[in-house]
Structure formats: C-alpha cells, structure tokens
Input
Amino acid sequence: MSKYFWKNKRVLVTGGHGFLGTHLVKLLKIYRPQRLYVPTAKEIDLRRLGHCRKSVNNIDLVIHLAGIVGGIGFNQRIPGKMFYDNLIMGTQLMEEARKAKVKKFVSIGTICAYPKYTPIPFKEENLWNGYPEETNAPYGLAKKMLLVQGQAYRQQYGFNAIYLLPVNLYGPGDKFDPEFSHVIPALIKRFFEAKKLNKKKITIWGTGKPTREFLYVEDAARGIIQAAEKYNGPDPINLGSGFEISILELAGLIEKRIGYKGKIIFDRSKPDGQPRRQLDTSKAKREFGFKAKMNFKIGLRKTINWYLKNN
Output
C-alpha cells in the first residue's frame, strides 16, 4: 500500500463508524489523505438525495460501506426495508458522485449476492448463475445493483466504479446485539450467557451442516485499501480468506474457548441459510496483491477475548 496514492486525495467513507468502517478509517489515517470525511448516519442520511449530494461535494474517492445489515432473522423480519434502504442509498450516492465528478467509487457488495447454489469455491463469473438464498435475497440483490450501476456508468460516462465482494467478517468490535449480529458474534454471546447463567443446553438454528468462510476485519480493511489504490476494472472481485468451516465445527471452537460445559442442540425447524460458502480469492491476489493474513483460530480468539473484556 502506498502513502503517495492517498497524499492528495479527498476521501469519503460512508458507514465509517460501523464495524468494518472503524477499522478501515483507522488504517486510512496512517496514510494521511488530504481530507478524510467520515460522517455519521445522523449527519448524512443516504436515503435522502440532498444528503448524498452534500456528502460528495469536493471529494475525489468514495468508499461506500454503509448499509442496513443483520442476520437471518433480521433479514426475514424486514425484507422490504433491507431491499429499499440498501438500494436507494447506493443508487443515489453513486449518481451524485458521478455528477460531482468523483474520480473513483469503491462499492462494497456482499457474498449474499451469489446464487444459493454456487459451485465451490465461488468464482466471480458465477455471480449471475441463479437466485440468491431466499432469506437474504432482498439485501443481496440490492447490493448487487451497485455492480450493475457501476458497470453501466463506466460504459456510458467513463465513471471509475469498482465492486468488491467480501465474505462474512469477524473480529474485535463486531456487533454482538442479537438483532444485528452474524453467526460468530451471535454464538460468542450465546455461549457466554449460557455459561454465565449455568444453562444446561443451548439451541442453535439449523442443522449445523452449512459451511461459512470468514475474513478477519483488519484483513478486509487492508484489501479494500489495496483495491482502491490498484484496481480499476469493471469486474467484481472477491475478498476472502479462501477456507470454509461448518457451523457445527465453529460452535465447537467457540464452546471450548468460552468454557461452556452444557449440551448443544440444533433446531432443524429453523433455516440454515446458504448451504456452503467459500470464495475463490485468486483474482484479488492477481489484480491488486491481496491475500488474507490472519489465521482463523487466532482471529477467533482475539474476537472472543475482545468480547469478554468489553462485555
């Protein structure tokens, strides 16, 4: 990564106070861009066109992280809001960035954009070969439209928009609120509370068979910065660690680390979500030299230790 690239850049980071955003902004500050604008959601509501216009004024590069995000239950309760809010924020922001002559727009998509049944490992060229997993399709498709919009704007206006597809993130500072959390923070919190309350059993949604890939948040932040510096192509790029682990095995690792001694029950009446997730990350390495560094077990330990300290 190059301090020279950022030296004269005026940068907007949306969602910069969230989980990924906090780590990204911390890393960006090391490179000392000319201006780093990180508005809160109260300052800039990207669902409002005027706020989008205001946010990109006098900006060279946009990194769009903002979104309404949650786990399977959250997605099932408010699919309309998940679709509309995520779609309208991205669409309006990119349009206003184009009109403001922003030089580069970095869209952060989601692995939920992939079809429900995608060959393992997920390759970028398979992105359009089917419908996403139903429980998070509204969110996945809303974010996927940033890719369509960016490619269309590149073709018509010569607008430099790139699109990154990160897998599920984890790490210190993650969201542990059950309303919004993904599987790792949700399981950490549940095992901790079960141990604290001396519960004899803990129930986990689904069968435990689905697999997931996880990317340490600091690796994700580094990958986004490398892509912002070096990648200028129209095609989507995966950001991942290149491995998968079953929910059953993941639960076992967290159970052991927390020290819970009760019984784990899988509720098969609840949805599993997508059957398998693992990305082909070769394109990111080839295009801008990105490769994840954090060992999963070490990263998981750091995440659990952070939660225990800050609970």
In short: Residues 79-99 form the longest helix (21 residues). The chain has eleven helices and twelve strands. The chain has a mean pLDDT of 94.
